[in-house]
Amino acid sequence: MHIYSSHVLVCSGTTCSSKQSILIIDKLKDGIKRKKLNEKIQVITTSCFGLCTKGPIVVIYPEGAIYSNVTLNDIDEIINEHLVNGRIVKRLLSGDNNENNSYETADFFKKQERIALRNCGVINPEMIEEYIAYDGYQALGKVLTDMTPEQVIDKVLDSGLRGRGGAGFPTGRKWLFAAKAKGDKKYVCCNADEGDPGAFMDRSILEGDPHSIIEAMAIAAYGIGSDQGYIYVRAEYPIAVKRLNIAIKQAKDMGLLGDNIFETDFSFNLELRLGAGAFVCGEETALMTSIEGKRGEPRPRPPFPANKGLFQKPTILNNVETLANIPVIILKGANWFKTIGTKKSPGTKVFAIGGKINNTGLVEIPMGTTLREVIYDIGGGIPNGKKFKAAQTGGPSGGCIPASHLDVPIEYDTLIELGSMMGSGGLIIMDEDNCMVDIAKFFLEFSVDESCGKCPPCRIGTKRMYEILKRITEGKGEVGDIKTLEELSETIQAAALCGLGKSSPNPVLSTLRYFRHEYEEHIINKRCSAGVCKELLDYIIIPSDCKGCTKCIKVCPTKAITGMIKEPHIINQEECIKCGACLEACPFGAIIRK
Amino acid sequence: MSKNCQCGEDKVCQLDNVIKEHKNIAGALIPVLHEAQKIFGYLPMSVQKQISKGLNISLAEIYGVVTFYSEFSTEPKGEYQINVCLGTACYVKGANDILEQFKKQLKIDVGQTTSDNKFSINACRCVGACGLAPVVTINEEVYGKLVADDVKGILEKYQV
Amino acid sequence: MKSIAELDAIRKKALNNMKVKKENQGYKIVIGMATCGIAAGAKPIMSAFIEQLEKRNISVPVSKTGCVGVCRLEPMADIIDDMGNKTTYIMLTPDKVEKIVQNHIINGQVVSEFTINSTQAIF
Questions:
Q1: Closest residue in chain A to residue C53, using alpha carbons only
Q2: Which residue in A237, A278, A428 is closest to B69 by CB distance?
Q3: What average pLDDT does this structure show over A485-513?
Q4: I want to staple B89 with a disulfide (CB 3.0 to 4.6 A). Which of A422, A495, A503, B130 is the partner?
Q5: What secondary structure does DSSP assign to A434-492, as a single string?
Q6: Across the interface, do B30 and A277 touch by the CB < 8 Å criterion?
Q7: Bridging pattern class, strands B136-138 and B80-85
């Protein structure tokens, strides 16, 4: 059997026939023969396609292109363009493609201002050429050929950019200290050990725009007089690691890393170092100790890393998102940057919104946007018609912001006033079904697990706090527990060695500040109205739904359920250990937890 | 595989090559440990001793580093690593119920391995897939938007 | 890298390469391949696009990109045409891909029900 590579189907239904389809078929066959394609292309007449108002219709396979309202004058174009050159003749398609359906037109996107995420979702992160096409490495070229190191630092200082990793220290000041420090060798480090649970903005930048970090680190190195950089990235981010490795290699191959970049005296090399699953390594001194190949324990400051950092040399450490802002500031200027955001916190901040919210995801908003705008206008509100209870920012170092403060503009200083902090940008939304004591316990458990153990206030203090919280959620809370928690918090804040330790009581303090009544309810009334703390709930049989099948009686390990067959059973609350076996066993859904 | 190695497959030899490659890098220990764990699957005392000799770092210091970082393990792990994400986003969406269900189904606790060396359960830190919370990863596979009832079916996939 | 001029030359060439071209039917397909996308199944989606294009014997470039931030709607893909119009398709499956290639790439008809604006949940 002869195999054709293409088939041209022409409709010869009544309507199409009356619109000249016979003549079209003849002209097609004739044209195909003249191009000597009749061995490869078969013209077939078919019955009605059902698109009669658009007839005559010509369909070409294997592509499946449907041409409508075809006239005799179109045939040459169809043959030359489509059959000979393989290009679909768009003007003959019935499609109308003018509506814009891109993510940029969605409302959640419109309120955003993308600086750090400018290339994420736009360029191919594995191709340096695409980064260059979008003005990549222009800023590096500009500083190396056109600016002195002092001018670079001045520009960053002037922009007012503050560290996006959490504490909000002015980036330019950090650079200035390191530039002034004396040393034969200086280092530039990038903190990509994004450990706050629920925060993944740095990962997104590393995966979507790795070259922006490389370029920014080279600019920083020029500014402070360094020739060696390290990116410390979590091992839990394999795709980010892979793309960074590709990016570093491409930059080296193109001479954007290495010796005499842009034919200047400036040389810069970059190495990747993988973390190994220790949260404390996000703290600057611990991170540097870890790069040195040791246990990642923090050390007291001073001396500050700007004077004695990695390998005892002057070092700057910047967070991924901070660095992503640098090339744009160099190219567009400090004044442009200051027009975005607020006076004290210029620019934007990327948040990872998660938890009980409709639009989970990453958003980049100008500083000063209110929490209400983020949650309702961008985040689309709380699912299932539930009520907003609190927003948690700053991870285990931060706190919860209640509904009464929804209209406060988000910037470094306002969040600290509210007892929380910016943190790296995790924003977890909680609704009425979340118990705040349980959330505080969750974060303290995290801090206990991740405490490096070097200083007693953090190692022992967080453990004691966790034990108290655990007791409270199990219904064994005592009057006086709240006071003890507050005292312990105060001690840890004053005496812990590093920033992570000092801030570890924040989740407790902020929930105590805004949700003290929930603690009291747990301790005094032994109730958890959010219905989370298992030991504080009662299992109850709804008499009208109970068929008296005795299944629950059989599974109850403490014989707490009584009742005659075919009569509603009752759970004796004194004897119930709240194991939940009865609830699972009941075939009628007659047992509830309340 | 470097040319220096004659035997080709020997893991000890592979590690020697890794040590040689890293020897002159500042702060080589952690990258070497990462590679060693890739080769052996875990870091038994013999491996630590070899690294100690190769990098000229005391065994005490190496042991200190290995036990400090949660990524490194001195015990062999199960064939399938079940990582239940307990990041905040997953936690508020009920990751604990998922974890309990895995524990119940496999009858082991967090950090333990089943007697047939098939499964280990770990409670892990945020994997950054918060849009899919609650999330569980089993080796390279990612399972998102889970409810406790899904657990049994997922495990069955691996039990064949 | 020797000079800004050299960088600019690369930039110009790259911009030109990134342009959507006529011989590619005037389309370009870009798939979100960050962790969120891959976790949600972006790899089979990329294969599905390539397979569908091969089956129809047409060449349209398929490339990858990072995360645009709406991870819960992954896997996602943008189809960009030579007029600069961008259509974002969300929560893709291989079946949806087949329909998108057939209707959109071949016949120029946006498959509205799979686009990001089709969902009311997006604000």
A1: A63
A2: A278
A3: 96
A4: B130
A5: S-HHHHHHHHHHHHHHH--SSSHHHHHHHHHHHHHHHHHHTT---TTHHHHHHHHHHHH
A6: no
A7: antiparallel
Distance from CA of A88 to the nearest CA of B (A): 38
Cα gap B18→B34, rounded to integer Å: 10
Q: Where are the domains of chain B?
A: 11-68, 80-159
**Amino acid C123: pLDDT:** 39
For chain C, residues with pLDDT lower than 70 are 119-123
pTM score, whole prediction: 0.86
Q: What is the DSSP letter of A319?
A: E
- Are A371 and A401 in contact by the 8 Å Cβ rule? The answer is yes
Quick check: C115 and A88 CB within 8 A? Answer: no
Binned at pLDDT 50, 70 and 90, residue B3 comes out as very low
pLDDT at B107: 94
Residues contacting C51, CB < 8 A, separation 6+: none
Rounded CA-CA distance A25/A20 in Å is 9
pLDDT of residue A95: 62
B-chain CB neighbours of A275 within 8 Å are: 69, 71
The answer to whether A436 and A511 have CB atoms below 8 angstroms apart is: yes
Name which of C15, C68, C117 is nearest A133 (Cβ-Cβ). C15
Looking at per-residue pLDDT, the higher value among A247 and A63 belongs to A247
Q: Which CATH number fits domain B80-159: 3.90.350.10, 3.40.30.10, 1.10.1060.10, 3.40.50.960?
A: 3.40.30.10
pLDDT digits (tens, 9 = 90+) for A543-585: 999 999 999 999 888 889 999 999 999 999 888 888 888 988 8
Interface mutation target, options B71, B110, B130, chain A, most CBs of A under 10 Å: B130
Residue A416 is inside which H or E element, if any? helix A412-417
Taking the Cβ of residue C90 and every Cβ of chain B, the question of whether any pair is shorter than 8 Å is answered with no
Q: Which pLDDT belongs to residue C119?
A: 61
Question: Shortest Cα distance from B85 to chain C (angstroms)?
Answer: 14
Supply the ipTM of this predicted assembly: 0.89
What is the tens place of the pLDDT at every residue in B65-89?
999 998 898 988 888 989 998 887 7
Per the DSSP assignment, residues forming a β-bridge with C88 are C78
Q: Do residue C40 and residue B132 have CB atoms under 8 angstroms apart? A: yes
Domains of chain A from N-terminus onward: 6-92 (3.40.30.10), 128-338 (3.40.50.11540), 348-431 (3.10.20.600), 436-525 (1.20.1440.230), 538-593 (3.30.70.20)
Mutate to test the interface with B, among C33, C35, C76, C122 (most CBs of B within 10 A): C35
* Residue A86: its H or E element: none
